[in-house]
Amino acid sequence: MDKYAYPIFFSAKYRHILLLSLLVRLFMESSSIVVLDIGGTKIHTGRFRKGKIEHSTKKPFHSDIKTSVSGSLAFIEACIEELKTIDTIAVAIGVPSIIDIDKGIVLDTINIPAWQKLPLKELLQTRINLPVYINNDVNCFTVGEHISGKGQGHQDIIGLCLGTGLGAGIILQNNLYMGANCSAGEIGEFPYLNATIDNYCSGQFFKDNYRESGEKVAEKARLGDREALTAYNYFGQHLAKAISHLLLILDPKIIIIGGSVANSFDLFIDSVWQNLTEYPYQSVIQKLSIQKSCNANSALLGAAYLYLDSVR
Questions:
Q1: For residues 158 and 250, what is the distance between their CA atoms, to the nearest angstrom?
Q2: Residue 108 binned pLDDT confidence (cut-offs 50, 70, 90)
Q3: Domain spans of the chain?
Q4: Which of 50-64, 194-208, 281-295 bottoms out in mean pLDDT, i.e. has the lowest?
Q5: Using CA atoms, how far apart are residues 306 and 311, in angstroms rounded to an integer?
């Protein structure tokens, strides 16, 4: 063999690096990560191990807890401690906010009043003595769908979460796009009619216009209540407008819908497609797929995947 062919494969330094990387990989694969998806009204928790979520649980995130930094941190710490085991190597969290990813600072969150420019990463690491990773909750959802959900095999996707508010996560050419300030996809803040898209394309729509939760309105709709069916028809009309904006800017192959309002997907999707007939480029609509997420743990999986990617 030529003495210059593949010299690195025979160097002691390379063998040491290769062995170390293999040991790290084996350690990571046999360890666990505590994962949290923090929403406006509830916290979804679980433990990530070998590509799956164990012990998935949802707990209410009450208003009296959210208005206090100390109270909310104590509650989250308790959630983590319930899931932490001897082999836990980190905690990964999705938060409904713009995030300083490197510093782990929650910059602007509407649904948790006490969290404004909160150094959440630093505060939690001090409490639990583990590395903490933080990203936007919809980014986590979208990455989870891209790797192990409806987005598998697609290079350009949008994850759309309809919950307390509306947010979008963006995958372009197989890469998560967060923007310069981790604020890409905050479509809910777009001005729309007399308010914002948030007011018309999230759970707020039903509370503002029907004085009931989307879940209650859905129950009535499935019993044939005309007003409730009309409500979801209007909801689909508004959501089609939001989707049209996203299509004009990003042109994804597939849009995956998650969040609590997605449980009523069957009640509004026909209205969405009907109203997308007004979109100016119908060749785009013909190729577009809009799917409901079928994995309740997508955001938890995505948080874990993003943490692992950050330490590669």
A1: 9
A2: confident
A3: 31-140+298-310, 150-292
A4: 50-64
A5: 9
Tell me which DSSP letter residue 50 carries. T
Burial class for 251, CB neighbours closer than 10 Å (0-12, 13-18, 19+): middle
Which residues make Cβ contacts (< 8 Å) with residue 82, sequence separation at least 6?
A: 45
184-104-203 Cα angle (round to 5): 50
Cα–Cα distance between 37 and 53 in angstroms, integer?
A: 12
Q: Which two tokens stand for residue 54?
A: 């164990």
Strands 88-95 and 132-136: parallel
Least confident of 25-29, 109-113, 159-163, 217-221: 25-29
Q: Tokens 């208003």, residue? A: 63
Domain spanning 31-140+298-310: which CATH class is it, in words?
Answer: alpha beta
What is residue 111's predicted lDDT score, i.e. its pLDDT?
Answer: 81
The reported pTM is 0.89
The topology under which CATH files domain 150-292 is Nucleotidyltransferase; domain 5 (3.30.420)
DSSP labels, 91-157? EEEEESSEEETTTTEEEE-SS-TT-EEE-HHHHHHHHH-S-EEEEEHHHHHHHHHHHHSTTTT-SSE
CA angle at 129 for the pair 123 and 131, rounded to the nearest 5°: 80
Q: Answer whether residue 12 shows pLDDT above 70.
A: no
Instruction: Quote the tokens at residue 106.
Output: 């929650």
Q: Helix, strand or coil for residue 67? A: coil
Neighbours of 135 (CB within 10 A): 25
Fold equal for 31-140+298-310 and 150-292: yes
**298, pLDDT greater than 70:** yes
203-209-214-217 Cα dihedral, nearest 10 degrees = -170
- Among the ranges given (40-44, 78-82, 260-264), the one the predictor scored with the smallest mean pLDDT: 40-44
